[in-house]
Specification:
Elements: H1 3-15, H2 18-25, H3 29-43, E1 48-50, E2 55-57, H4 59-87, E3 91-97, H5 100-116, E4 120-126, H6 134-137, E5 143-147, E6 155-164, E7 166-171, E8 191-195, H7 200-206, E9 218-223, H8 226-234, E10 240-243, H9 246-249, E11 255-259, E12 266-273, H10 279-291
Helix pairs in contact: 1-2, 1-3, 1-4, 2-3, 5-10
């Protein structure tokens, strides 16, 4: 049995149209007719009834399609599995995220990845800023979507996938709570509370040490936990610089998020261990670039 003849039969049995079948198979309509007639000679009876208006399956055509289609698909699935294994995309890919918006992005990328590489099992977990790079370095993760900037010699920074506007989080009764925007100069006299154990490069990018005019910004590391930090801010124990997603994922009755007019957005990029990404990580990066607008920029 010729594989191309069989494949052509199954496509024609689905389309019931010689022209559309030829378009799908990227061959001529005459070639479709030739292979169909050859298969019918092998069987010894017509598989299709043809007229000037329509093409239909004969009872024998229905029987052949019913009995052959599962085996045909099984062969294709087997080839796909072997190809995945050969490319290194089969197995477990462990992906980390460090914020709710990053988590949603990782979920979207993972769904597409699973469809494209069925043998790739994606496992997702949260990464805390207090142990920003630990899971990657310990081999607990293969790739993570995390806040930038990152400058670590043993880690590779991949494409930026997200950008989120920076905002000032203050209590509802704070003097800046009613403002439509704020600037860094506005917080020079404030106590800016931040999380403990944040990487220094990221801390300085998120909360600059000085205003544009050179005035120092007082930064106090008070806790390892984001929810506790927001509770302190809501209680009037200081202010903090956050990102716009906070208003969606961390709303509080006495907490206000005010946009900055002189700070750019915080960027989130992919990060992996070493200089050579595995085939599974490369596949994840490829899909992420496709579906994330920032990743295409």
């Amino acid at each position: 049995m010729n594989w191309q003849e069989l494949h052509t039969f199954l496509v024609l049995a689905e389309e019931l149209h010689f022209g559309r079948t030829a378009e799908r198979l990227l061959i001529s309509r005459a070639r479709v007719s030739q292979m169909t007639r050859t298969l019918e000679r092998r069987v010894g009876a017509p598989l299709f009834e043809r007229s000037s208006r329509r093409v239909t399956l004969t009872p024998l055509g229905h029987q052949l399609r019913t009995e052959v289609a599962p085996h045909h698909q099984g062969v294709l699935d087997a080839l796909a599995r072997v190809t995945e294994a050969a490319r290194g995309t089969a197995g477990v890919l462990r992906v980390g995220f460090s914020s709710p918006l990053a988590g949603e992005t990782v979920m979207r990328v993972s769904e597409v990845l699973r469809e494209r590489y069925p043998l790739c099992e994606v496992r997702i977990r949260e990464v805390h800023l207090s142990d920003h790079f630990g899971p990657l370095r310990r081999g607990e993760l293969d790739v993570q979507l995390t806040e930038l900037p990152v400058d670590e010699p043993d880690l590779t920074v991949g494409p930026v996938l997200l950008r989120d506007a920076r905002v000032l989080a203050v209590s509802g009764g704070h003097r800046l709570a009613g403002r439509t925007t704020v600037s860094l100069e506005d917080i020079a006299d404030e106590e800016v509370v931040i999380m403990e154990e944040m990487p220094a490069l990221f801390r300085d990018a998120l909360v600059p040490a000085r205003t544009p005019s050179g005035r120092p910004i007082r930064r106090s590391a008070v806790t390892r936990y984001w929810q506790e930090l927001l509770a302190l801010v809501a209680a009037g124990e200081g202010v903090t610089i956050a990102v716009a997603q906070g208003a969606v994922y961390y709303p509080r009755p006495n907490l206000v998020y005010v946009p900055f007019d002189d700070l750019g957005p915080l960027e989130y990029g992919l990060l992996w261990r070493g200089t050579e990404a595995s085939a599974k990580v490369c596949a994840f990066v490829e899909v992420a670039r496709e579906i994330c607008p920032a990743g295409r920029g």
